[in-house]
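Hello,

I think I submitted the SN-glycerol-3-phosphate job twice by accident. Can you confirm which output corresponds to this input? Input:
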Amino acid sequence: MRFVSIALLLLSASSATSGEPSKLRQLDAEAIAIRDSVPADAVIAHRGLPYWAPEETAPSYQLALGLGVDYLDADIQRTKDGILICLHDDNLQRTTNIGEIFPDRQDDPVSKFTLAELLLLDAGSWFNKDFPFRASDSFVGLTILTLEELIDLVEESPKPWPGLSLETKETKLFKGIEADLHSLLEKRGWDGTDPDRRLLLQTFERSSLPLLESHFPQAPKILLLWKGEGYMERVDEAEFVDWLNFGVDNGAQFAGPSLPGPAEYYDLMQGWMVKLMRDARLAIHAYTLNDDFEIYDAQTDGLFTDRADLLKQYYHVRDLRRELGRK
Ligand code: G3P
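Support: Only one job matched these inputs. Its output is below.
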């Protein structure tokens, strides 16, 4: 088995570099059943509702909960003392006042702070400064949210609950985070085995996907796809097939391509790419779309959005139009 895996790895590596596409692999029946357990047209509230409240804080998720979204998205990192928290960036500068509280540690990653230290930071006031027309006094002094607190927020809300869509990132800083995530989610009943507590896992990290698969074989997973500035011309068919085959072989039932738009994102939804994702039987949850939803509706099965308010409205009106069209 190990020999076969190594042979497959060598095969895909050599064909990716030679420009000769590997044979595209496809989801099997078991993977398709996991894929189909995820609601169609999934509204994934990317970091909560960050247009209206500071990302990944309690009000951001409370607003998304009030909208009845399908999933709450959170980026999972781990403190020095082993607590799993929700935070996107690999340092604390953009979304906290770390410069005031720990001026000598501004570039340090989360892994160098204890939870008690992180709780000294204001994770809300930056939003009021950056977005004065959406500011609120209630955002001042918000604290970074732990994953357990996020689960509490969901379980305090009326059923049906949204699922959790959790991303492991920067996993080189957080060795063993997949096992820690499993321990916590299993303890709270959110490991993907309870239909009332739906779990979707996502990662850009090739090293993390097989670990997520080993801990959460029953949970749907997204292999997120991204390519940095200046590299687009190098995403040829061989490389794209290699990405998709890696996902199919390691427990992903979804591809998560970046959409064109915000400057740091590149177009991985070109027609030939969509065809390959479909041919592999992968479902597509693309990121991050905040308007003009109709452009990508037909090619996607769900969307990460900062504007879950608008995406919910879009799907609702689209369905009404379809109803009218049938009369
Ligand atoms: O979380 C899915 C997608 O939005 C990935 O982008 O930058 O939010 O981790 P990011």
